[in-house]
Specification:
Structural class: mainly beta
Shape: globular
Strand content: over 45%
Radius of gyration: 30 Å
Number of domains: 2
CATH topology of the largest domain: Maltoporin, Chain A
CATH architecture of the largest domain: Beta Barrel
Helix content: under 10%
Largest sheet: 32 strands, mixed
Oligomer: single chain
Distance between the termini: 54 Å
CATH superfamily of the largest domain: TonB-dependent receptor, beta-barrel domain
CATH class of the largest domain: Mainly Beta
Length: 938
């Protein structure tokens, strides 16, 4: 509290600073009243132009337009000024603006008549022009992709669109990109924001935001800020992915999209709908933009999974194998609303709201071969069905929702600019009536050595080479029946206040920016789980309630058993569990928790011009984090289980985050950038709960620690970029990160209970442990290159052809290992979540409204989870995605577009391996996805 009081007092004192107008201000001299020129930059189609350069050359002073196209030239004496406006793809244009009073508003429209004559700007980068301009004018290293460019690729969600950006890798779930990784760092080290606000996560354990929640057509631009300045949140070691929603327009907008699709796993049609409407009212004072998107996509996947463990001789043995058939229907809804009201050129307020909802109805049919390295009588086969209640389509429903609502304002008081914002964000996940039922082969009598029947053990696809016992075999017994409900809720309240004060103009002009931000987060995970007697509920005739699953054409291979009997989803859906008495399962509820996190931040940022071409930004950000957590300790034995609250645990820490950025414009078309910054990354929520769960029977333990430290990094960046006159760029970047206290998910096969805090008769038992720990310090060194251009520079006839490509190489090393990792001399341990190579390549053809594009995305393998043995470390395998899309557009004022997309032409699976590349832990196939439709822009 004292920290916040002192911070507020400092800000109020700073707000009284008066601007300086010269070096020698004498007493009794009347200074001229300074004025401001404001306005908005648009193109011939009245589309706003963000990042435009507005320069008064005689004063050597200028600004860039913001994401909405607005600009403000302040600290000007009354007079007449010649203003130069520059933009990628346009020749500079000059305007004469007369400032007679305190303020004047001048909106500027760049017409196509001023476009470059030597190369007509068409092709795939015409729509990307705005993004390149914003990228060109930023102080730090930023990659920007516009909505126009996103529409050129066959991407259904934001995550899929992100994988096209230089230095970005994504991880998949059900065939769609879910989490983003920036510059060879794990997804935990990257922040995801909407309109600059970090949004909460609907996941229970992590801070990672689900990118597959947001349709690709719901954003105006995607900004990846790889270097953060002091006025941005410091929780961004990898960088910040900022999703800018559709802003209020400068004119009436009305667009529609209707499409459909198909996947081989489901064999059912999909539906895509979208609409955008916007306009301005009351003499352009009020602007409104509303957008909606709806996607309904039946799909699924074919999956196999394997688990290995070390024996006493340090040899790996196959412990468990699974065959899984998923049927998933995904419904995605997204709605956004933007409002702004301009009272006058000096005062305006705005509102932005976005709501995203994704419903996954999932049925899973799983064959598990268990304890394959044990005695025959302990080995078994389990046939399990995952389903839900009848009111959720007899499927497990995972309903995830995120929302963000922000009210903000901008105000000019003379030369002092003040902006403020208050926002509320919420993320939830609901899993009502999630149900599992299984029957098991009781091997005590038959004593079949299922483990001896496996072929290709240790290879990419082990399989059981013998037929499953027939369902009428009396050794098949009902094994499991349970019902659970889970709710995850995270609420965030944020408030910020910023001041921007231009001090001097000219070749050595400077600006001071300062402000504060307060964030309060509360997150809870509440799960209730009950086991029921399956014989009481399902009865003796349960075999008649089974249906054939594991489809023909199962993609991991025909060696896996197709058309196997599972208890039907309809059987589980109609059960009324209120009629039966269940047993509460404390182990499943052990992950329940409550956490409150408060972040109080203040910053100073000083921008200084050092002549005509060199600029510097010096900043300092202070962030204090206050934590309060609570959870449960659980012990599970054969006889009884206990569940006790941990009580409240508190922790706090303060971080000083300095930054220095330099930018040298060697020409109007290119810049050199250098920066040194410090950033942090707070641990995932599950790591911060003081809970301990011991399953005494299975020798397994899960541990949390509220004293887990945040990761901290010093980041060094060097880059050079050059922008072509015909719209395009070539760039080269070098980056280095020195990271302390990297948080890693760790597992151990054998760990003494006494070392884990367990007392009594079980203290000397050995447990397999799961925990997130501060594992090591790391260094990440990388190189980025990017090139995008049409081939018109070779010959005008080739302007319809072009290339978009980028490549990132990342080299990581680790040191100062946590002793629990069991690192030995000579072990080459890479940073978790850090692929060495990522690349994107896209060839396009665009002429006479026809657009064809072939795109390839690649990422090399990387370590995902560490163990006490390098042979047990988990790796995310390399991926290569090939996509093809085509469209045809016609019309002038009203434009029509028909399109067709084909995703994942190589049928790239999601794959994890253990220790060695050929030792599969999980492989999941999704097949090719097709969709087509029509877009109308009125």
């Amino acid at each position: 509290m004292e920290f916040r009081k002192n911070l507020l007092a400092a800000l109020l004192a700073s707000a009284t600073i008066m601007p300086m107008y010269g070096d020698n201000i004498k007493d009794n001299v009347t200074l001229p009243e300074m004025g401001t020129i404001t306005g908005r930059i648009t193109d011939a189609d009245r589309q706003v132009l963000p990042g435009a350069t507005i320069m008064i050359e005689e004063l050597h002073t200028g600004v860039t337009s913001d994401v909405n196209g607005f600009y403000t030239l302040s600290n000007l004496k009354p007079g007449t000024y010649k203003v130069k406006v520059s933009y990628v793809g346009y020749e500079p244009k000059y305007y004469t603006i007369k400032l007679t009073g305190n303020n004047v508003e001048r909106n500027i429209q760049l017409s196509e008549s001023h476009e470059l004559k030597e190369v007509v700007v068409t092709g795939a980068f015409y729509g990307q022009r705005k993004a390149l301009q914003m990228q060109k004018e930023t102080m730090g290293v930023t990659n920007v992709v516009s909505a126009d460019q996103v529409g050129k690729f066959p991407d259904s969600n934001i995550g899929d669109a992100l994988k096209r950006i230089n230095g970005i890798n994504v991880q998949y779930d059900q065939g769609e990109a879910r989490f983003g990784q920036v510059r060879g760092t794990s997804a935990d080290l990257t922040s995801v924001t909407v309109n600059g606000n970090r949004i909460p996560s609907a996941e229970g354990d992590t801070r990672n935001v689900q990118l597959d929640l947001i349709p690709a057509d719901m954003v105006q631009t995607i900004e990846v800020n790889k270097v953060v300045t002091s006025d941005m949140d410091g929780d961004a070691i990898g960088g910040e992915i900022n999703l800018v929603t559709k802003n209020t327009p400068s004119h009436r907008v009305l667009n529609f999209n209707v499409g459909s699709g198909y996947t081989w796993v489901s064999g059912k049609p999909q539906l895509d709908l979208g609409a955008t409407w916007g306009d301005r009212f009351f003499n352009h004072k009020l602007g409104i933009m509303a957008a909606a998107s709806y996607q309904y996509a039946p799909g699924g996947s074919d999956n196999t999974e394997f688990e290995y463990e070390e024996n006493d001789d340090k040899q790996l043995e196959l412990k468990e194998a699974q065959v899984r058939q998923y049927y998933v229907t995904r419904e995605r809804q997204s709605y956004s609303l933007a409002l702004d009201y301009k009272f006058n050129p000096q005062h305006k307020i705005s509102f932005k709201g976005m709501y995203n909802r994704r419903s996954d109805w999932e049925n899973r049919y799983r064959i598990s071969y268990k304890k394959l390295n044990s005695k025959a009588e302990k080995q078994s086969i389990v046939m399990q069905t995952k389903a839900g209640a009848s009111d959720t389509k007899n499927a497990r429903l995972e309903l995830q929702q995120t929302m963000d609502y922000t009210l903000d304002g901008e105000h000019l008081f003379g030369n002092l600019k003040m902006d403020w914002a208050a926002s509320y964000s919420r993320a939830t996940e609901e899993r009502p009536n999630e149900r599992y039922a299984s029957y098991k082969y009781n091997n005590k009598n038959a004593k079949i050595k299922f483990g001896d029947g496996f072929e290709d053990v240790g290879d990419r696809q082990p399989y059981y080479a013998t037929s499953l016992p027939a369902i009428d075999d009396t050794n098949w017994k009902l094994d499991e029946l349970d019902n659970s409900n889970q709710d995850i809720v995270e609420n965030e309240w944020k408030g910020r206040l910023n001041f921007t004060l231009p001090i001097t103009n000219g070749l050595y002009g400077n600006t001071l920016k300062f402000g504060a931000k307060y964030t309060s987060k509360e997150k809870t995970r509440t799960k209730s789980f009950f086991d029921y007697d399956p014989e009481e509920v399902l009865g003796d005739s349960w075999r008649k309630l089974t249906v054939q699953q594991i489809r023909d054409g199962f993609m991991p291979g025909s060696q896996y058993p197709a058309n196997s009997p599972f208890i039907s989803k309809q059987t589980l859906g109609k059960i009324d569990f209120s009629k039966y008495k269940g047993t509460e399962n404390y182990e499943e509820e052990a992950g329940n928790y409550k956490i409150r996190e408060q972040i109080t931040a203040g910053y100073l940022r000083f921008d200084q011009k050092l002549g005509k071409r060199l600029s510097a930004t010096l900043g300092l950000r202070v962030e204090r984090t206050d934590l309060k957590t609570s959870g449960y300790n659980v012990e599970v034995t054969d006889d009884e289980s206990t569940m006790k609250p941990t009580g409240d645990f508190k922790n706090h820490y303060t971080d000083l985050l300095p930054s220095l950025l330099l930018k040298y414009k060697y020409s109007d078309d290119g810049s050199l950038r250098a920066s040194v910054t410090k950033t942090i990354s707070r641990p995932k929520y599950s790591a911060l709960i003081a809970n301990k769960t011991f399953n005494i029977s299975d020798d397994e333990a899960t541990i949390g620690d509220p004293n887990t430290k945040p990761a901290k990094a010093v980041n060094v960046d060097l880059s050079i970029d050059h922008y072509f006159k015909s719209v395009g760029l070539v760039s080269l970047g070098l980056f280095y990160k020195d990271i302390k206290n990297v948080n890693v998910e760790w597992s151990s096969n054998k760990y003494l209970g006494s070392d884990l805090g367990l007392t009594g008769e079980n203290a000397e038992k050995q447990f397999k442990v799961q925990q997130n720990i501060n594992a090591y310090d790391a260094r990440v060194l990388g190189v980025e290159v990017a090139y995008q251009r049409d081939f018109g520079f070779i010959s005008p006839a080739l302007k319809c052809l072009g290339f978009y490509g980028n490549y990132t190489y990342t080299h990581s090393t680790t040191r100062n290992f946590n002793e629990r990792l069991g690192i030995k001399d000579g072990d080459d341990v890479k940073v978790a979540g850090s692929p060495e190579h990522t690349a994107n390549a896209s060839m396009f053809f665009e002429k006479s409204g026809i657009n064809l594009r072939l795109s390839y995305n690649f990422a090399s393998a990387f370590i995902d989870q560490m163990s006490t043995s390098r042979a047990l470390d988990r790796y995310y395998d390399k991926v290569g995605y090939l996509d093809l899309n085509a469209s045809y557009t016609w019309g002038k004022k009203t434009k029509f577009t028909v399109y067709a997309n084909a995703n994942n032409l190589l049928n790239q699976p999601l794959r994890y391996y253990q220790g060695e590349k050929n030792r599969t832990m999980q492989v999941e196939y999704y097949g090719v996805r097709l969709n087509a439709g029509v877009k109308i822009n009125l």
